[in-house]
Queue: 2 jobs
Job 1
Amino acid sequence: MEFELNEDQRMFQEAAREFASERLAPLAQEFDEKEEIPKEIYTELSELGYLGMMLPEEYGGSGMDFLCYILVMEEFAKACAALEISISVHNSLVCDAIYRFGTEKQKKKYLPRLAKGELFGAYSLTEPTAGTDAGSLKTTAVLKGDHYVVNGTKTFVTNAGIADVVILFVLTNPEAKSRGISCLIIEKGFEGFNVGLKEKKMGIRGSDTRELSFENCQVPKDNLLGEENKGFKLALTLLEPSRTAVGAQALGIAQAALDEAVKYSKERVQFGQPICNFQGIQFKLADMATKIDAARLLVYRAAYLHDKNVKCTREASMAKLYASEVANWVVNEAVQIHGGYGYMKEYAVERYFRDARVTEIYEGTSEVQRIVISRDLLK
Amino acid sequence: MWLSEKHEKFRMKIREFAEAEIEPVSAQIDENAEFPHENIKKLGEMGIMGMVVPQEYGGTGDDMISYAITVEELSRVCGSTGITVAAHNSLAVYPLFLFGNEKQKKKYVPPLARGEKLGAFGLTEPGAGSDAGATKTSAVLKGDHYLINGSKCFITNASFGETLVITARTDPGKGSKGISNFIIEKSMPGVKVGKKENKMGLRGSDTAELHFEDVQVPKENLLGKEGEGFKQFLITLDGGRISIGAMALGIAQGAYEKSLKYAKERIQFDQPITNFQAIQWKLSDMATQIEAARHLIYSAAQLKDQGKPYIKESAMAKLYASEIGRWVTYQAIQILGGYGYLREYPVERYFRDIKLCEIGEGTSEIQRLVIAREILK
């Protein structure tokens, strides 16, 4: 077993930490309050290579391995979870999807522009009536000549309002249910493709979440990603890394909350001494740190396996499940240690508390992760 | 539960009012962080703002159980309204009634009890939170008045409250025995409302700082005797905790009901999600914990009504109800999935609102300290 990061990984981690803590962290509260992340930030990210992290250089990417990417995401999440999820979707669900399943033509067309930030990506699977039951999609795509005609409604789409390219899952063979799902690349501007109003969320408020609707939207046949009717498998394949990435997000939020709690507990004086002198606080901090380390090991293990091309469905689900539950427990304790201040928006832990909550919901709720894990155990 | 028919009837009356008048505006109050003036006005007309004091002082003379029911039912639809009522009654009206002399009671209690004025309690300071005895606000006797200087923070009803009960240090050498309570009118020169807090939840409730700069408070506005302030606020908080417990209970109940309804309606895998054991067990645990919290709260309230000791019991009720309440609202969101994370759905607000119940009127850590002290004495 290897517990040391290699030089590349350390370098990417340090660079991300520096950028995230100096540039993003001071703005995170503003993004949250205004429910928006300004465009300039994305431009900066593209200049630094954060919009094509795992793509090879030939497509304009930074050529990171998956663990590197996870380390970067953890650092970003420590600073601003809303921005982190936005670029995580772009990188691991859009760039990676096209890179792994696209034709050479599709790759050449989209990847360099995605990596450069000329195009930004979204990924759309969930529908109002197909959440946990993701196989029960109702959005249809009917092939007519050289076009698919798409009709339906998607919901909870991260980056929906700022995306130029959407990886969209549709039913091409309704009778076959989950075996009749295909994946299409949708471009902003396709006729009949409408973007809904921005959702008002509890947390990760800087990220742009909306509904998408399709009314006889014409999509060129060439924009089929992967094989027809093999889309569900494609979605499941992408979920392994994206779940690990949400694990890294949870981990980053939890670490940031612990850091703030340690700092505050040393500074806050009550009963004539810093509150870190009290055992009640000490044990809380000890439990927070222990759980975070355990979560980190699970997340890194899943990333390591992914890099080795070992199937890690169970391990990715465990990483996501555990890290997200730990994160929510940790942020609660961090607020608790801050007392009344922890309930105020002036203090970062207030935001962490709201941001962490979603990590148990998206990319498969904790209930879905338990289904995946138990299914693997019982097969 | 074991509450009398009279109490259950009373609950239905409050519930009907809360559902008809308060629930329709609770999301808006949260989103715009606007104080529920209308709600409070109507509640004043119903006698809710003076529940804990007898009729001769403008109140309704209800018992603690009825009061807990009221806070529970209001919080079931709107936490911001719940805490406003709880802070006014438990922390302003009640200590004035309990510790005030006849003249003070006649002067200050009736306008508060009738809901014409709102009351606030100023205890917490930037350097005195859990260590509430570390109050730095000073009160110096000068002839026939005290000169008060200092700052209070996280004060519920600070901006709109007109009658303030404030802790201040009258004897710097005496530690917690050098603290006294004063009745301060907002209109007295030198009283300033500071920064309005931007909170995670209970965004409709009025939380702000209070500053006192050479405020001249007549000697007759001392509540009780000099040096009794610490004891007075401990007694005040013992009662207040029952209402914070009731608030957590109400929020948890509201979240539970909303998620139960959703679970019955939500179809996934061709069936309502209530068919799945994982959801069933969550709902079972939520209902069980709510029921346990309810018993703790109403038995603490009953002890108080019977004049028996209830310090440990009120701390337990608050501790338990706020902790399980957060867990319940957490699970309610989980049952709603992605919808639970949207501000369009009330469980999102319940989750933010309830978190304060583990912090306000003594954090969970303080409740554990109070309980341990009672157990070990």
Job 2
Amino acid sequence: MTTYTRTNTALATIALLALLTGAGLSAPANAGGVTAGTLIENTAVASYDEGGTPRTINSNTVTIRVDELLDLTLTSLNPGPVAARPGEAVLSFELTNQGNGPEAFKLNANPAVAGNQFDVTVTSIAIDTNANAIYEPGIDLLLTAPQTTAVLAPDAVRTVFVLVRVPTGVNDTQTSAVELTAEAVTGSGAPGKIYAAGGVNGGDAIVGTSGALAAARGRLAAGLAAVKLVKSVSLRDPFGGTGAVPGAIATFTIAASVSGSGSVAALVVTDAIPAGTTYVPGTLKLDAATISDAADGDAGTASTAAGVRVALGTVAAGTNRAITFDVLITK
Amino acid sequence: MINRKMLAALGAALMLPLTPLAAQSASPVSLSGDVKAVKTTTAADGSERTELVEPGAIVPGDRLVFGTDYANNGAETVTNFTVTNPLPAAVRLAPDADAALSVSVDGGKTWGELAALKVANTDGTARPASHADVTHVRWVLATIAPGAKGRVTYPVIIR
């Protein structure tokens, strides 16, 4: 029984295929047009009466094969310059096979573009294997030289990552560009150039309007933030003056300012309580709001022994924060 | 075994439509098809001229002209002569095709000039047919005298 079922299923498939072929199934349409290798067959039929007898006759069938058009587009996927700091950075591009045949593309990333204020080092080119547009080390495929994509079907789109290393010594707001080029493996050149027998099934390949070569630039801008801390003190003695005498209260203010562009991460401000003074409990404030002395949910801790510690986290450039606390002068 | 037998039967069934109508005598009318590529060249003065050439490399967007030569090689006039040409799926009728050409947009069921034909939308309404909708073209001649011959052509663009 099992054998019969299988046999029938296989036959049904074959019969269906035969029907579809016989019905002159529409050629697949895609952006690049009719798929390369498609045979265009034209036959005319004439009908007429000969001495009152209806007759028909077919012409010969003219067959012509659609050749392969080599076309592609390459665009940067980064909406603006990628923030760069010394170290690794990733530029994203989108490569589309706009041709009508399967084609692989050679990739080349040039980090030395005219007008660059600094040049990065290209470490690798990677293909977004899981199509999530995010570079993931160990998941996305790193290309080895010569850096060439897999064969892409017509209309296929791939995200390409260019991994670069930003050198030390770049200054804030300096910019750089990396130019990625993609070229059809079959060849490139002036539109209309023919690569005889270079296409699908031994057909020709013809260079399309893109020249079968496309370039796109990804841009980087150094975003270097600098942190400046300014500490000041005001004194209030028991006599209404400002003398630094035992019993006087000293209020310290630490102004933290982040300049430049970008942001700094995990910014922590610490300060020891000066010798000969004790911390006045409950006086720690961040931007005039009191934060508790204990290690708890808020940003700060303070004690005479451990000093003052305030974690500001990620702070964007252009931000100012103020930390204040009081100490009592004991001797 | 069953598999092979049934496949053979299926193959035979598929072969059937290709069997020529051997019982009839030779046709007095001959039909001969050909295809040319339309090549546009721009002269030094910027003027464009087109010529029909043997197709070389062809890609989507290229223009072709399908032609059919007919001749009445018999001794008697034939009547009600109709040449019907289904368009290959990979091409569409070029916009510069003769507006008076008799075309069909429904697989050869109904015929007319393109401007008079409509195509049904999925929502039940109809829209004017376009060149890309044409499925068949045909030419109708009342008679062909003995020894007379002619040629019919239609231009297409590869989809």
